[in-house]
Specification:
Order of helices and strands: HHHHHHHHHHHHHHHHHHH
Number of strands: 0
Largest sheet: none
Strand content: under 5%
Number of helices: 19
Number of domains: 3
Helix content: 55-70%
């Protein structure tokens, strides 16, 4: 009976893992319901090009032909120190654009006739490097976290395959060609997942503080911080308080310094003065449809979430961590429903936590058996 159950688990695991990679490879490059990816982007050069100072030479650049409805252009404008042409929430996400601009500018002659064209192209090229390094880190971070188990004799066959899901998923594949902050955001979340399972509250808090400068969705790390702060408050009360206050303080200061008000949500189209009026909720219900919304959620994290639930049932490990990640996952889905349109790449942020839970369960079970 025991052998039968092991074989059954093996078949289910293998089927889900292969399904995940197959769907990621096909859906991420041919997804018909991701209009910001597949629709004709005609008009974005006309809207932004002249303002930036670009010539017709840049009109055919890939950032204008598939840059997620102008998102990439906004980040490049910030990298070019033209924040005044952009708006919130893009202008809150300053770290990666400024980093790209910092490395790109020394390679462009400021006196050249087509300085803006050359700088635009150089920033886009540097951003490819940032995405490559980020993908490298998406694998390296879990490799370091699980290094002792990975090189042990008790390693399961599915362990490296599940680890690779952190890079070979739809969120990464769909955004990799463009100058976007999504892949660096996944790196921040991956670091957060590692520090969460290592119970390192200081590094988790520091990671969240840096993440605020990358993209505001990294504030979901406040939930794991709350969990660890609660575990530590009796022994380290001051640390627990600081870990909860510091990221929120940086979040508020950043918004006040850039837009002058905390409540400026930009194109998220949400106003705290009218808290029950969610623009994107209406879009999902009346335009795209809720079936479409939940289909995109499933394609993004559905299979890895099923693996996550199965491994909880099979191994019965880390009950409290399981609940934290479960709440985290549903929180991100609800936030997407209320405040976001590009569901796949945003929902993908919970993937590192799902993966780390699965891998921690496998490691814990095998090291004891």
């Amino acid at each position: 009976m025991n052998k039968f159950l092991k074989k059954k688990k093996l078949i289910i695991s293998l089927f889900l893992i292969l399904s995940f990679f197959s769907l990621s490879a096909v859906i991420s490059t041919n997804y018909y319901s991701e209009p910001s990816y597949v629709r004709d982007n005609t008009g974005y050069y006309e809207k932004y090009g002249p303002k930036i100072g670009l010539t017709e030479k840049s009109k055919i650049h890939r950032e204008f032909s598939g840059g997620y409805a102008g998102d990439a252009i906004h980040y490049i404008m910030i990298a070019m120190d033209k924040e005044d042409l952009s708006h919130t929430p893009y202008t809150y996400r300053i770290l990666i654009p400024k980093l790209a601009g910092f490395f790109a500018k020394p390679f462009v002659d400021i006196k050249s006739k087509n300085y803006e064209d050359n700088l635009f192209k150089r920033i886009s090229f540097i951003w490819r490097g940032i995405n490559i390094i980020s993908c490298f880190l998406l694998i390296l971070i879990p490799l370091i976290h699980f290094k002792k188990y990975i090189f042990s004799k008790s390693q399961n066959f599915e362990f490296p395959l599940i680890l690779l899901m952190n890079t070979f998923n739809m969120g990464v594949i769909m955004t990799a060609p463009f100058s976007l902050v999504d892949i660096p955001t996944y790196v921040i979340i991956t670091l957060g997942a590692s520090f969460f399972f290592n119970k390192n509250l200081i590094l988790l808090t520091l990671t969240t503080c840096i993440g605020v400068l990358v993209k505001e969705i990294t504030m979901i790390l406040m939930l794991p911080i709350l969990f660890l702060a609660f575990l530590n408050y009796k022994k380290k009360l001051l640390l627990s308080i600081l870990s909860l206050v510091t990221p929120i303080l940086i979040f508020l200061i950043l918004r006040l310094s850039i837009s002058g008000e905390v409540s400026d949500m930009g194109q998220l189209r949400y106003d705290f003065k009218d808290p029950l009026n969610f623009y994107y909720l209406k879009v999902h219900i009346y335009n795209a449809g809720l079936i479409n919304f939940f289909a995109r959620v499933f394609f993004s994290i559905g299979i890895i979430f099923l693996i996550f639930v199965f491994y909880r049932i099979w191994y019965e490990k880390f009950y409290r961590e399981f609940l934290v990640i479960l709440i985290l996952t549903f929180s991100v889905i609800i936030l997407n429903l209320l405040l976001a349109s590009a569901v796949i790449r945003v929902t993908q942020v919970v993937t590192p936590f799902l993966i780390f839970y699965i891998l921690e369960s496998i490691r814990s079970k095998n090291l004891k058996t």
